[in-house]
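Hi everyone,

Forwarding the result from last night's run.
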Amino acid sequence: MLRLGSLSQKLLLLLGAGVALGFANSPRRYDQVIKALKKEFRGIDQRALSRSIRRLYEAKLIKYQELKDGSIKMILNKEGKKTLLHYKIDDLAISKPPRWDAKWRVVLFDVPEDQKELRDALRMRFKRLGLIELQKSVFVHPYDCRNEIDFIIEFFDARRYVRFIEALHIDNELHLKHRFRLL
């Protein structure tokens, strides 16, 4: 995957969020656009911004359209959306509610041997998300993580291999409660 700097990542995230970014060759127009962007973009170096836009375009992550007023409208294309998902998946986190609902979330998967890379990727992502491995392809977490698991499953196109269960009891529950600091 293409390695992008933080400015390019921010531009991708803004485009992915549906923010319409228009740029023109006029420095005055740049200032108008930059002032309208989020807090992180205040005081941004115009050259760095131009380089980031050029890099995204050359990497074929965005397409642009020249408008009648001379400005350029940037649009995230299919490859750009894929790249954006890579950055979003790295930011996934399971939120901890004030009180545990006493349910265990169990994720099971059975990926064929010829797709070992997918199996390893799922295992790594579930661990990174904070799930604990009960067995080779069985993970558990005490908090609601359905949306995060669904995102990972969709990202890897692994829906047919993964199951999600909510359970009220697990036989080694005491050990898990200690691991998740629930006692």
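The helical segments are 6-16, 27-36, 46-58, 78-90, 116-129, 146-155, 173-179.

Cheers,
N.
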